[in-house]
Amino acid sequence: MADFHSIGIDTLGSETPTSEIIQGALEFARTRPGCRLTFVGREDELQCTREFGHKVVVCQDSVTLYESLVSVLRRKRNSSMKVGLQLLANGEIDGLVSTGDTAALMALSRQAIPMVPSFDRPAIIKRFDGKQRPFWMLDLGANIARKVNWLIQFARMGSTYATAIGPIQQPRVSLLNIGSEARKGPQILRDTASELSKTSSINFVGFIEADRLFDGASDVVVTDGFSGNVALKSIEGATRIAHHIIDQELHSSGLNESEIAISVAKDVREKLNAQAYNGASLIGLNGVVVKSHGRTDRIGIGAALQLAQDEIQARVPGHLKSHQ
Amino acid sequence: MADFHSIGIDTLGSETPTSEIIQGALEFARTRPGCRLTFVGREDELQCTREFGHKVVVCQDSVTLYESLVSVLRRKRNSSMKVGLQLLANGEIDGLVSTGDTAALMALSRQAIPMVPSFDRPAIIKRFDGKQRPFWMLDLGANIARKVNWLIQFARMGSTYATAIGPIQQPRVSLLNIGSEARKGPQILRDTASELSKTSSINFVGFIEADRLFDGASDVVVTDGFSGNVALKSIEGATRIAHHIIDQELHSSGLNESEIAISVAKDVREKLNAQAYNGASLIGLNGVVVKSHGRTDRIGIGAALQLAQDEIQARVPGHLKSHQ
Fold it and tell me: Residue B97 forms beta bridges with which residues?
């Protein structure tokens, strides 16, 4: 599997145009001879991919944005997301990338793909690039309910993931809180911290505040899905306002006429974007499922495919099963 | 009071050097002839301010960082923060600026200053600069417990504040959530949204996601103290990593030798910093209390004093009392 593998791509149901998804995927596959793609979507849109030797699974229906979960689960018997997950469940692909709605992907994944035993629910995990080194944060929005036991499961998932994907030996695991001292924050976080301190398989280093995320003090940041999603989206919002300010200042200074300044601004933009818009993964499932950002471009699609390939090659679900 | 007023400054107990606090305050007062400052702190450090006609209240003790609240409330009978709040309670100053610990400032404020009737607890509110217009978010960390009634009080406080300070007519009030559709998020937010929709004095416009904060869809964003603090600090963290990336790219491109590029980078830095490091206010108290960022500089101190002056001149506590 490490040498030859197949990744499925759900091409429908996002704000990213299908043509951009296809372009990003073909560019990715061009330099990865061991990777074969399976496109799931409309015949007319995917026709162009056949000549490159990729597979097409035709499917007209999509999970539309803002559709209710009840409708997603019951009515859409043949949405591209559902078909893609079924291919994964049947072993016809080794991993799936979707740009569709996160809640729908979470719900349909749980229906189609079994959980790794001893984990109750999938979490969403994503890599961020800190000043000196990367870190991973989970859960970023798959769950809302707050239970000590779930946070501990997220810590175990995250620690195993960083070990496999980093690869990082004994990743330092922290809990996102609004203070770094042990007495700070809500009771559930203090209870979770106390449990994690006693768990020998986890290298728990305490609480972390969101302004310190990028400083390198922790490799895995555990949070409930609500706060994690707020953190993720705040970083996105701040990134966008940073772009806006840079563009404004370049313009008013006249530096937007300078080739070198434009090139620097472009590099800054790409590095900032990677923080916010790269792919995230559903973890805890017995299968590789990557969620690309819904408003991404061909570069974002390439990054999501790379992430799926990395997880397939690192055998993430296998590691979760064996580190119990 | 609008023409002549006095602002107190707690000069001890933060990571900002007292000399920097004094410098920022003197620079602020130089161009505001109607404003007299009262410095609270150590005699030797504050001696230099007397020649400018400002008042000094001598006080050796400070609330130190990471001190427990029990110790702050019981042991420190004469900390600069406590003395400053007492001056405010006695009407000797019209507002107080502190760079000290937020939790201590919250606890001591509640001890010294009465609440505006009908509000249970103070919240922390701060202005952010969106792409086209400012917005205010509260609570940013004064509270943790999640109650519908408190969130509704925050909405009323925030709406009144934006009306007085903006000034904005009928500010659009939203709730921070992890989805914008009515069915998204935890029950408490859906219950609060339902209540706010029925409250005619509040112009409630629904849920907002953190990545849309800066887009101008809402003037007042209401959140519980935990999520609000995560959002605030994530924005700080993202701002710092943006600085880091800009510096790195300038350096590797050689543009750090260009005067104009340095000046643009400086402007970008200042605008980004204003997002994260400006002052925040305790709201709901019958008095003006502004918390400057703990790691600020003379510019940050000036911004915090300006905020205190704006709140004094807009009579924020008076408006909270009359809009009930």
Answer: B9, B290
Peptide bond into A139 cis (omega under 30): yes
- Chain B residues whose CB is inside 8 A of the A246 CB are 246, 268
User: Under an 8 A CB cutoff, do B238 and A234 touch?
Assistant: yes
Please, are residues B288 and B166 in contact by the beta-carbon 8 Å criterion?
no
B167: left (phi over 0), alpha (psi -120 to 50) or beta: beta
- What is the structure's pLDDT at A1? 43
Nearest CA in chain A to B69: A183
| pLDDT greater than 90 at residue A228 | yes
With a CB cutoff of 8 Å and minimum separation 6, the contacts of B301 are: B9, B16, B20, B21, B23, B24, B25, B28, B97, B99, B292
Say if the Cβ atoms of A234 and B210 lie within 8 Å: yes
Of B210, B246, B260, the CB nearest to A268: B246
* Mean pLDDT of the residues in chain B: 89
Instruction: Tell me what percent of chain B is helix, strand and coil, each rounded to the nearest 5.
Output: 50, 20, 35
Asked if A68 has any chain B CB less than 8 Å from its own CB, the reply is: yes
Closest chain A C-alpha to B111 CA, distance in angstroms? 20
Identity of the amino acid at A257: E
Candidates B210, B241, B254; nearest CB to A230: B210
**How many Å apart are CA B206 and CA B201, to the nearest integer?**
15
Quote the pLDDT of residue A276.
67
Instruction: Dump pLDDT digits (tens) for A117-139.
Output: 989 999 999 999 998 999 999 99
Interatomic CA distance for residues A99 and A292, integer angstroms: 5
Contact B237 A176 (CB under 8 A): no
CB within 8 Å of chain A, chain B residues 133-172: 141, 144
User: A276: buried, middle or exposed (CB in 10 Å: 19+, 13-18, 0-12)?
Assistant: buried
Q: Return the residue matching tokens 């003395």.
A: B83
**A300 confidence band (pLDDT: 50, 70, 90):** confident
The span from the CA of B305 to the CA of B97, in Å, is 7
Contact B6, B92 (CB under 8 A): yes
Nearest CA in chain A to B258: A261
Confidence of residue A115 (pLDDT cuts 50, 70, 90): very high
Give me the half-sphere count of Cα atoms (radius 13 Å) on the Cβ side of residue A260: 12
Instruction: Give me the phi and psi of A27, to 5 degrees please.
Output: -60, -40
Q: Which residue has the higher pLDDT, B62 or B324?
A: B62
pLDDT of B2 strictly over 50: no
- Kindly state the tokens that stand for B92: 């000797």
Q: Does position A66 have pLDDT exceeding 70, yes or no?
A: no
With 0-12 CB in 10 A as exposed, 13-18 as middle and 19+ as buried, what is A183? exposed
Output the pTM of the full model.
0.92
> What's the token pair of residue B252?
């590797």
